[in-house]
Design brief:
360 residues, alpha/beta, Rossmann fold, 6-phosphogluconate dehydrogenase C-terminal fold, Alpha-Beta Plaits, 16% strand, globular, NAD(P)-bd_dom_sf, amino-acid biosynthesis, NAD+ binding, aromatic amino acid biosynthesis
């Protein structure tokens, strides 16, 4: 167990996915974690899973982390500030400006509050989905509103570093506009694409490949939670969606008059723009880099994927990323392996020599 930067105790209010994961991560560092939740069942499950202990009279937390739905975040933060006048209080809601304005209007003690947002999650919620390593290597935004001294906010930095995340500083306005682009709008687009599948014929669904699965993965997220998130960040989200609507109108116009001069060029430029945007996404270790890939056919038998990993390692190649595709009823899966471009040819030869079938 590595040494913790926090002193503790740390009180976690709300033991869903994020709260339970914070508790598990801090407990692994030896921190005394105090858990609270409106649901006695959720609280009992989180305690049983080892995320912390129930609150006791006389608890004096160093830090309070509020992990509740966005529509009640300001209420709970205000209550925690009042209940624990010596503690620093933070929240992990995915929208920051509305919470800050609400607390300011209430006259809350903003010298002991600072909002944060870990950019980590899963499609499944609840304490049983919690993971101690959920935040490792993930950005965790600290939203500076100018009312907290660096010394008072040091426990926030310690929390983030203890959980293995990477600290990013933004203003509330910068944060909300950023997450609208990289999180909230993708959720809307993913959900709308998935909604088109409701009445799709089975013949079409049987053709589904990894591309559609990638696009619709986050469509399985909790609709009630997302109504709250989108409601608190409606302005920036609507602005970006209007821009998408303009993009779609141009694309549709080109498709509807495909033989018109310049139509093919407009479509190609839109698609190429997507290539350029993807290239800007941070890759492994935060470096912009495009990886080469090869697709390996993996028999649907126990131990085959482990054997593939071992063979890649024996070839002296680092596996940068992996995607798996398995069509219903098929006796073989497809493993798309991402590696550095300079080793893809050698790895292809090595795997083929070891009996692997390379697709394509």
């Amino acid at each position: 167990m590595t040494e913790s930067r926090l002193i503790g105790p740390v009180r976690v209010v709300g033991v869903g996915l994020l709260g339970a994961s914070i508790g598990l991560g801090l407990k692994a560092k030896g921190i005394d974690v105090i858990l609270a939740d409106a649901s006695p069942t959720h609280l009992a499950i989180a305690v049983d899973y080892g995320a912390g202990r129930p609150a006791e009279p006389g608890d004096r937390p160093q830090l309070v982390v509020v992990c509740v739905p966005p529509d009640v975040t300001a209420d709970v933060v205000a209550a925690e500030l009042e209940a624990f006048p010596e503690a620093l209080v933070t929240d992990v809601a995915s929208v920051k400006l509305a919470v800050y304005h609400d607390l300011k209007a209430r006259g809350a003690d903003l010298s002991r509050y600072i909002g944060t947002h870990p950019m980590a999650g899963r499609e499944r919620g609840g304490p049983m989905s919690g993971r101690a390593d959920l935040f490792v290597g993930r950005p965790w935004v600290v939203v500076d509103h100018g009312n907290v001294s660096y010394q008072n906010a040091a426990a926030i930095d310690d929390l983030i570093l203890d959980l293995g995340a990477t600290l990013v500083e933004l203003t509330p306005e910068q944060h909300d506009r950023a997450v609208a682009l990289v999180s909230h709008v993708p959720q809307v687009v993913s959900s709308l694409v998935a909604r088109r599948l409701i009445d799709a014929p089975h013949a079409a669904l049987n053709l589904v490949g990894q591309g559609l699965r990638d696009v619709t993965r986050i469509a399985a997220s909790d609709p009630e939670l997302w109504v709250q998130i989108l409601g608190q960040n409606a302005g920036p989200v609507a602005e970006i969606l209007r821009a998408y609507r303009d993009d779609l109108d141009r694309f549709i116009a080109a498709l509807e008059d495909f033989e018109a001069p310049g139509a093919r060029r407009r479509i190609a430029e839109e698609l190429f723009g997507g290539n350029t945007g993807v290239e800007r996404l941070p890759g492994k270790h935060g470096v912009d880099r495009r990886y080469a890939s090869l697709i390996v056919m993996v028999d649907d038998r126990p131990g085959q994927l482990a054997r593939l990993f071992n063979d890649v390692g024996d070839a002296g190649v680092n596996l940068e990323d992996l995607r798996l595709e398995h069509s219903p009823g098929a006796q073989v899966g497809l493993a798309e392996i991402f590696v550095l471009p300079e080793v893809v040819e050698r790895l292809t030869d090595e795997l083929a020599a070891r009996g692997w079938r390379i697709a394509g």
